[in-house]
């Protein structure tokens, strides 16, 4: 499990940048918080990200797994 902070483009608004922790990588099974499924297997080519303020964070629990293409290195 990886828990590195990453800056990414918001899936809702690509002009907005958000900072989230990478919680799981492809193939990992994640226990979700508030997602429509209790557990989810991260699909190939995606990762699961979460914010530090559980329940108040716009993260994978709201929008699902994200593609690494949204992750910004700058």
TrEMBL record:
<protein>
    <recommendedName>
        <fullName>Mitochondrial inner membrane protease subunit 2</fullName>
    </recommendedName>
</protein>
<keyword id="KW-0645">Protease</keyword>
<keyword id="KW-0496">Mitochondrion</keyword>
<comment type="subunit">
    <text>Heterodimer of 2 subunits, IMMPL1 and IMMPL2.</text>
</comment>
<comment type="similarity">
    <text>Belongs to the peptidase S26 family. IMP2 subfamily.</text>
</comment>
<dbReference type="InterPro" id="IPR000223">
    <property type="entry name" value="Pept_S26A_signal_pept_1"/>
</dbReference>
<dbReference type="InterPro" id="IPR019533">
    <property type="entry name" value="Peptidase_S26"/>
</dbReference>
<keyword id="KW-0999">Mitochondrion inner membrane</keyword>
<dbReference type="InterPro" id="IPR037730">
    <property type="entry name" value="IMP2"/>
</dbReference>
<dbReference type="GO" id="GO:0042720">
    <property type="term" value="C:mitochondrial inner membrane peptidase complex"/>
</dbReference>
<dbReference type="InterPro" id="IPR019758">
    <property type="entry name" value="Pept_S26A_signal_pept_1_CS"/>
</dbReference>
<dbReference type="GO" id="GO:0006627">
    <property type="term" value="P:protein processing involved in protein targeting to mitochondrion"/>
</dbReference>
<dbReference type="GO" id="GO:0006465">
    <property type="term" value="P:signal peptide processing"/>
</dbReference>
<keyword id="KW-0378">Hydrolase</keyword>
<keyword id="KW-1133">Transmembrane helix</keyword>
<keyword id="KW-0472">Membrane</keyword>
<dbReference type="InterPro" id="IPR036286">
    <property type="entry name" value="LexA/Signal_pep-like_sf"/>
</dbReference>
<dbReference type="GO" id="GO:0004252">
    <property type="term" value="F:serine-type endopeptidase activity"/>
</dbReference>
<keyword id="KW-0812">Transmembrane</keyword>
């Amino acid at each position: 499990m990886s828990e590195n902070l990453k800056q990414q483009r918001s899936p809702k608004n690509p002009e907005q940048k958000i900072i989230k922790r990478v919680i799981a990588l492809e193939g990992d099974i994640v226990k979700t918080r508030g997602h429509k499924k209790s557990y989810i297997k991260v699909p190939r080519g995606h990762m699961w990200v979460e914010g530090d303020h559980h329940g108040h964070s716009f993260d994978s629990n709201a929008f699902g797994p994200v593609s690494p293409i949204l992750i910004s290195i700058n």
